[in-house]
Design brief:
The chain is α+β, with helices and mostly antiparallel strands. The protein has one domain: 2-Layer Sandwich (hypothetical protein PF0899 fold). It is 26% helix and 35% strand. The chain has helices at 3-20, 41-51; strands at residues 26-34, 61-67, 69-73, 78-82, 97-101, 105-112. Strands 2-1-6 form a three-stranded mixed β-sheet. α2 (41-51) links the parallel β1 (26-34) and β2. The longest helix is centred in the first third of the chain and has 18 residues, at 3-20. It starts with a helix and ends with a strand.
Amino acid sequence: MHELSLIEGMRDILESAADRNCSARILRVRIEAGAFSAVEPDALTFAWEVVMRGSKAEGAVLELIVLPGRAFCYDCLQTVQIDQRLDPCPLCGGGKLMPEAGDALRIKNMEVA
């Protein structure tokens, strides 16, 4: 489960940001995950609850925002939205797609007290 190590890295980032802002607690964190990021939402939520124990983010609400994937189709020369990496082009049915967006995982923002 790689989600555990992802959340451990995020904990360090979040705590550093909270320290820089002299914040005692993190109340809410919004994370954006692309459709191709290979992140399992349930595993990410479970890892969040385990890893954040004893940190400034213990008890914080995790909001996961799943962003669609986007790819350029070499058959119709259009940029299209797709749900999975190997999906055909929704416009022309072509299979020559180059993913352009949807593989990122990032902290969008957080609320602190």
